Amino acid sequence: MKAVQEVLKVIDEKELIDNYLATYPISIDDFDENITVGEVRKYSIDCLHQYLAHLKAMKIKSDDNQGIFFISRKIEDETGDTVTNLVFKNDLKKYGVQSESYAFEFTPQPEIMGWLIADNILTQNHLNDLLVEILYESSFFGFKQEGLKKEIDELASSIKEIDNNLGKALSFDEFQKEFDFDKQDPKEEKLEVKVIQDKIEYSEYSRKKELAEIIEELSL
Description:
Layout: E1 2-3, H1 4-10, H2 13-23, H3 37-57, E2 67-76, E3 79-88, H4 89-95, H5 109-114, E4 116-117, H6 121-125, H7 127-138, H8 148-164, H9 172-178, H10 186-218
Parallel strand pairs: 2-4
Antiparallel strand pairs: 1-4, 2-3
């Protein structure tokens, strides 16, 4: 397995940026009204080239408990799709295919760049899509994470406020009534629950299948 930074250094940068902008298009409404679509695209491409140069040049932070990125399948809008997962070596050793997947938008970029990308077939077949997700999440608070500390401080403050002001829990029926949700009849509810459960079961089966391949490769 190679670290994220290693893969970024050898990937086709133009193809990666094109895929990024196709997945996360820049809105022209965010710019001055006199700017053209072509100018917005050029500006966006230049920013992404600079972002990638920043990631490829940084000193990565090593850790024995490395994160591992991989792709699994899910059902989205009644069609097959893929999802990016992050697991950690220590969890794999302890929990195997039951290991949890983690979010990482609050993680410093030097740590993310040192994490590994799995070699299993599904991940490598969707490598470009995986890298787009890593780039997007790693820049959630700015290309150089300039807003990260502020967001972490605000998150900690919000958690503390919630802990100090716990309210009364609402039942689902009370929640529906308070927020004026359309109420389904019993059969609709039963069918909806079945669809949701089937989607979750499919996603979990795929995730565990890919995890089993990763665990075997690492001889854990």
